[in-house]
Design goal:
Largest sheet: 11 strands, mixed
Strand order of the largest sheet: 1-8-2-3-7-4-6-5-9-10-11
Number of domains: 2
Strand content: 15-25%
Helix content: 25-40%
CATH architecture of the largest domain: Alpha-Beta Complex
Radius of gyration: 20 Å
Number of helices: 11
Bound molecules: adenosine monophosphate, magnesium ion
Structural class: alpha/beta
CATH superfamily of the largest domain: DHBP synthase
Distance between the termini: 50 Å
């Protein structure tokens, strides 16, 4: 298949380009587009055969359900069987934005979208291109991240092209995204809402609006493989660059010493390694190949750069990435979740 790559002005999206992409979606095609979190790969969520194309293009396991994207919260009435009361407050404060709500589903959504679960995950993105595209398409748009399954999510069109060129109809190039990590997935089917995937909206932000919010116990656990995950997608290896990642937790000074020791050991054994550090710690790695994720004081920046950095290592033939941890509060919680998963739960406590 020939993939059309369409550059778009995100501040003032050209109507003819949007119209064309919307028609492709309506006719059952696949369109990758920018959102404020990461790039998504969209298909008409009410068209089962279009949605099956997403799973094929990404190589995504069929038991991992998709998020349905809408541009008008009134669409919820058609897509859900029941709107839990708490949804009203959450939508008022966080939509459009990086919050996905898991709610009881209606029959308007085919089984393939939800992997036959009796709930559906729904979000309204805030990116002007995503919103305008969904509006013009006039259908809800099922859209997981636009990467090959298992790879880091795409934060610019180049990443999407690397993974999906020739496998989808259109890639809309809207430059780099803002958040850089996926949406927070919040299950509101139970009396106390549960975060199934940490993301762009933090637990603290949610709790300030609706009170207590729980975290799915398997999320940060290095033995997560032992639990049955509530969000099916969380069980797969994710976000992984080609190199092996080892993540180090502990006081920054101790972590730096241990990483330096392992780095030198690896170098002695002919294993090409690189250190993923922070602005605050980068200077303690003398004579060591090191890159900084950003400042610990500004975890938003770390979040927005993480996937880009992980993908860049693929071009450098790095074999092992020795990564520091950051504090797992606020958006740092989502960053640490992605790093732990990218490492395949290979976490060293020092
Ligand atoms: P992706 O859009 O590929 O980044 O991933 C979507 C995430 O939402 C995955 O972790 C899915 O498992 C999760 N998800 C989608 N639908 C549901 C649902 N009905 N219940 C629980 N988790 C869901
Ligand atoms: Mg994904």
């Amino acid at each position: 298949m020939k993939t059309d790559i369409i550059k778009i002005n995100i501040n003032n999206p050209e109507p003819d380009k949007l119209q064309h992409a919307a028609e492709v979606l309506r006719n059952g095609g696949l369109v990758a587009f920018p959102t404020e979190t990461v790039y998504g790969l969209g298909a008409d969520a009410t068209n089962g055969s279009a949605v099956s194309g997403i799973f094929k293009a990404k190589g995504r396991p069929s038991d991992n359900p998709l998020i349905v994207h809408i541009a008008d919260s009134r669409d919820l009435d058609r897509l859900t069987a029941l709107k839990p009361e708490v949804s009203e407050h959450l939508i008022k404060v966080f939509w459009p934005g990086p919050l996905t709500l898991v709610m009881p589903r209606s029959s308007a959504i085919p089984d393939i979208v939800t992997a036959s679960l009796d709930s559906v995950a729904i979000r309204m993105p805030s990116h002007p291109v995503a919103l305008a595209l969904i509006q013009k398409a006039g259908v809800p748009v099922a859209a997981p991240s636009a990467n090959s399954s298992g790879k880091p999510s795409p934060t610019c069109a180049r990443h999407v092209i690397d993974d999906l060129d020739g496998k989808v109809d259109i890639i809309i190039d809207g430059g780099s995204v803002e958040v850089g990590l996926e949406s927070t997935v919040l299950d509101i089917t139970s009396p106390i809402p549960v975060i199934l995937r940490p993301g762009g909206i933090t637990r603290e932000q949610l709790e300030s609006v609706i009170g207590r919010v729980d975290i799915c116990p398997s999320l940060m656990d290095s033995e997560a493989g032992l639990h049955v995950p509530k969000s099916p997608g969380m069980k797969y290896r994710h976000y992984a660059p080609e190199a092996r990642i080892v993540l180090f937790e502990g006081k920054p000074e101790k972590v730096c010493k241990e990483i330096s020791r392992i780095y030198r050991q690896n170098t002695g054994n002919g294993i090409k390694s690189i250190v993923l550090a922070t602005d605050e710690t980068v200077d303690c790695y003398k004579g060591i190949d090191v890159i900084t994720m950003g400042s610990r004081k500004n975890p938003d920046t770390i979040a927005s750069r993480l996937f880009h950095i992980l993908r860049e290592f693929n071009d450098q033939n790095v074999q092992v990435i020795l990564a520091e941890s950051i504090e797992d509060r606020g958006i740092g919680f989502a960053v640490m979740n992605r790093l732990i998963k990218a490492s395949g739960y290979n976490v060293v406590k020092v």
